[in-house]
Specification:
CATH class of chain B: Mainly Alpha
Helix content of chain A: 25-40%
Order of helices and strands of chain B: HHHHHHHHHHHHH
Largest interface: A-B, 37 and 25 residues
CATH architecture of one domain in chain A: 3-Layer(aba) Sandwich
Largest sheet of chain A: 6 strands, mixed
Helix content of chain B: over 70%
Distance between the termini of chain B: 29 Å
Number of helices of chain B: 13
Bound molecules: adenosine-5'-diphosphate, magnesium ion
Order of helices and strands of chain A: EEEHEEHEHHHEHEHEEHH
Strand content of chain B: under 5%
Distance between the termini of chain A: 34 Å
Radius of gyration of chain B: 20 Å
Shape of chain B: globular
CATH superfamily of one domain in chain A: P-loop containing nucleotide triphosphate hydrolases
Largest sheet of chain B: none
Number of domains of chain B: 1
Oligomer: heterodimer
CATH topology of chain B: ABC transporter involved in vitamin B12 uptake, BtuC
Radius of gyration of chain A: 18 Å
CATH architecture of chain B: Orthogonal Bundle
Number of strands of chain A: 10
CATH class of one domain in chain A: Alpha Beta
């Protein structure tokens, strides 16, 4: 099956279940993964990247069993991700930051220029240490789309940016599926951004999947509003 | 976008460095005072040690790995060189390459267990290995043509290894050493500017980011250890050929600590820092001695220098020189534009 499928994934840190029997499937486009702090969003990404080992469960990407693959090999299978704390390499130029990913995923170097053009980063010969936060966020997007990505995981890609900058990033993110044909999974706290970017959204709370479906419906549901937005709905209190 | 301009900037740095080095190779042996005798022999050893400094510098500056056993690995390279010379009688250049290979294996294998743990554990492990190597060479001594595996004739009737045919006297051996050192540093430079160098920079930034980029972090760490150990092994070979015999006294663990401190001060982020480091490590103390100043003063200088380096100048002396030169360049550049 095309897309990403998580089946009964559980992650335990000591006694805490950061993910508790989570099953969800994303097919195409830009999909949202939301939930309050500590809900398990980054943990989900870490399981998919191989930085955290799931106690149980499996994940399939375009029919491939992802969790059995060594972490660094997943990039070659088409997995890309950005980090909540951006990881642009300070000692390398913006160009080399992107080239690095192409090099280790057996991708053509021509895709490096294309990725940098897509995000619109000028003077890519500048070092990572010389870039502004926005430019570093752009480099991260470029690193995520270089080569032939199948799944792009973006962990709060707009953190720390002002509204105009977020707007620009939003446009880039929503264009990724058309540009490179990858499925995008977006974690973000900005509900306007999620609403604008994602057709489908999954909501985690304390490691449990509490809602899944079209963004419009999910964000309107009372349970989600209570858990995530902290809004009390009296008529739904029995739920 | 022009990634080429970064490359050309880097290449310009390399060309400047090599040009300066070649100039030094040509001029130094004809300088009064240090161009001959003890002065030149001291400088030769200092230039050799710049390879060990470069190894520690690459590991620390490019990967964030603290390896405190470089002088111990120089001993491994030197021991292997002498042993192979007496066992095979092969030309020095071949023995040098084999010694580099053996040192690469030894340096990598002993560091491997610590590699999966934290950076501090590698520092402690390598320091202990430096201590162990100190004890081992004190016990076995260095080969001097004697019998058995250790190849040591303890009666004092041992022989010395001859210098390579291309570098018989002090002047030509200095130039021989300088050429080998330049070649090795250029190879290191090339490695740092290509795929492995980029992967190492990613690892230094963070394992998670590196792995997400598809980098096999373990493999690239092992590669770094192998390469830097090989480079240190070359230093051992050159040192063995310099005097034909080696003395265990030169390979105490504290020397490895001293070398690491020197690298911190001189600059771990550039290969120029390595050359400065080698000079600091071996030449300056000897210079102080000949001036009648206690050579141990260097410990005080290094101590203060390390504190200064860590607190105010993480890129070391080389970094400060670089800042100075780019400041001068931008100033002259502005003047040209103004006129
Ligand atoms: N390495 C870890 N060790 C222990 N607990 C962790 C670790 N990583 C995450 N957790 C816990 O797992 C839960 C989910 O965290 P996380 O996935 O980072 O949440 P978020 O949804 O904010 O990204 C939190 O309770 C967090 O404290
Ligand atoms: Mg998070």
């Amino acid at each position: 099956m095309a897309g990403l499928t998580l089946s009964n994934v559980t992650v335990r840190y000591g006694g805490v279940r950061s993910l508790d029997d989570v099953s969800m499937a994303f097919e195409r486009g830009v999909c949202g993964l939301i939930g309050p702090n500590g809900a398990g969003k980054t943990t989900t990404f870490n399981v998919l990247s191989g930085f955290t080992v799931a106690a149980t469960g499996s994940a399939e990407l375009d029919g491939m069993d992802l969790l059995r693959v060594a972490p660094h090999r997943r990039a070659r299978l088409g997995l890309r991700r950005s980090f909540q704390q951006e990881q642009v390499i300070r000692a390398l130029s913006a160009y080399d930051n992107v080239r690095l990913v192409a090099e280790h995923t057996r991708s053509a170097l021509t895709s490096v220029g294309r990725a940098l053009d897509y995000v619109g980063l000028a003077r890519a010969e500048r070092l990572g240490s010389e870039l502004t936060l926005l430019e570093r966020r752009l480099v991260e997007i470029a690193r995520c789309i270089v080569g032939q990505p199948r799944l792009v995981l973006l962990d709060e890609p707009a953190a720390g940016l002002d509204p105009t900058e977020s707007e620009r990033l939003l446009k880039l993110i929503t264009g990724i599926p058309d540009e490179v044909g990858a499925l995008v999974l977006l974690v973000d706290h900005d509900m306007d951004l999620v609403r604008a970017a994602c057709g489908t959204v999954a909501v985690l709370d304390f490691g449990k999947l509490i809602a899944f479906g079209s963004t419009h419906e999910v964000l309107a549901s009372a349970q989600v509003r209570r858990a995530y937005l902290g809004v009390e709905d009296d008529e739904e209190s029995a739920c | 976008m022009s990634p080429q301009s970064v490359a050309s900037n880097r290449t310009r740095g390399l060309i400047t460095g090599v040009a300066l080095a070649v100039l030094a190779v040509v001029l130094v042996p004809s300088l009064p005072g240090i161009g001959a005798g003890l002065g030149l022999r001291t400088l030769t050893v200092a230039v050799i040690y710049s390879l060990a400094a470069a190894s520690a510098g690459v590991l620390y500056g490019r990967l964030g790995l603290v390896s405190i056993m470089q002088v111990g690995l120089v001993a491994v390279g030197g021991w292997t060189t002498l042993r192979l010379h007496y066992a095979t009688g092969l030309p020095f250049e071949v023995v040098l390459l084999l010694a580099a290979l053996v040192t690469a294996v030894v340096g990598t294998v002993v560091s491997l267990p610590a590699l999966r743990l934290s950076g501090l554990s590698l520092a402690i492990t390598t320091l202990m290995i430096a201590g162990a190597l100190e004890v081992i060479v004190r016990y076995t001594g260095f080969p001097n043509g004697g019998p058995g595996f250790v190849g040591r004739d303890a009666t004092g009737s041992g022989s010395t290894m001859p210098r390579p045919s291309l570098g018989q006297d002090d002047q030509t051996y200095f130039r021989y050493v300088a050429v080998v050192v330049i070649v090795v540093l250029v190879l290191l430079w090339w490695l740092l500017a290509s795929r492995p160098g980029r992967a190492w920079a990613a690892i230094r930034q963070g394992d998670a980011g590196a792995m997400a980029s598809g980098i096999n972090t373990t493999a690239y760490r092992v590669l770094a250890l192998a390469v830097t150990s090989a480079v240190t092994g070359v230093a051992g070979a050159l040192l063995a050929a310099n005097s034909g015999v080696l003395d265990p006294v030169s390979f105490k663990a504290q020397q490895s600590v001293l070398l690491f401190a020197t690298v911190l001060i001189a600059g771990a982020f550039s290969l120029a820092g390595a050359v400065i480091g080698g000079l600091f490590f071996y030449w300056v103390p000897q210079l102080l001695n000949t001036w009648g100043v206690d050579g141990n003063l260097v410990f005080v200088i290094l101590g203060l220098g390390t504190v200064q380096a860590i607190t105010t100048a993480p890129h070391g002396i080389a970094g400060q020189l670089e800042n100075l030169s780019s400041a001068l360049r931008s100033r002259t550049g502005r003047r040209v534009e103004e006129s």
